[in-house]
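Q: What would this chain look like folded?
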Amino acid sequence: MNAPPPPRRGMSERQARTLEFGIVGASLLALVLIFQPFSLDLFTLGAAAIVIVGLAFNLVPLAQPGKTWRSVLIAAIVIVVAFAIVTLLSLGMAKLYGYYISPPE
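A: My prediction, written as structure tokens:
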């Protein structure tokens, strides 16, 4: 008797390629928005997109056929948490530096 094949886990080749090309395409779009000479609003949008897409670019190595979406999601959560921690530490250090250089009362 032939047993049915086990359910396939992970991304298909097409899904992995779509994820990778989506991230790369978003990166190119963000660069175009930054270097366009027409609108300051588009520049602002591009600058914010560069930060987001720069973080998302860390997911490109996980865009492999057979990798699970769960592993991509966990990696994305780790990246966002690390970014939040670094941002909070940077803002805290800037605040302390402002306190350090303020004139005494």
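The CA atoms of residues 20 and 60 lie 6 Å apart.
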